[in-house]
Amino acid sequence: MGVAPEATVKCLAQAPTQFRTFHNAAANATAPKAHQAQHFSLHGGARSGKLGLSKKKDALLFPSEESYPAPPIGYRVSFVDHLIRGLSAPIHEFLRGLLFVYGLQFHHLTPNSILHIAIFITLCESFLGVHPNWALWKLIFLLRRNGSHNIAYNIGGVVICVRPDVEYFDVKFPDSIQGWRKRWLYVREECPDSQEFNIAPFDGNSTILRRRSWDAEANEEEKIATEALMTRIHELQNTRGQELSGIQITAYFLRIRVQPLQARKNPLWMYAGEEDVDRVSIDLSVKDLEKLVRKISSLNKKDAIPSSCRVTPYSATNALPQNRQSASPLPPLPEGGDVDERAVVTDDPQPLMQPFINLGAQFIGYRNTIEGLKESLLAANKQADDLAAKLKASEQAREKAEKDASCIEDLRKRLHEAETALSDKIAQNAAHEAKIAARLESLSRRFVRKMSQDFVLEKPEDNRLLDVLSLLEIHADLVRRSIFNAQKAFLRLFPYFFPKKKEPDTFAALAESFVPQEDLGLALRQENLKIGVEGTIALVAESQQNVDWTKVGEATKMKQDKWPNLIRAAKPHSKKILAFLGYKPTSSSSSAKTEVK
Question: What is the pTM (predicted TM-score) of this model?
Answer without folding.
Answer: 0.53
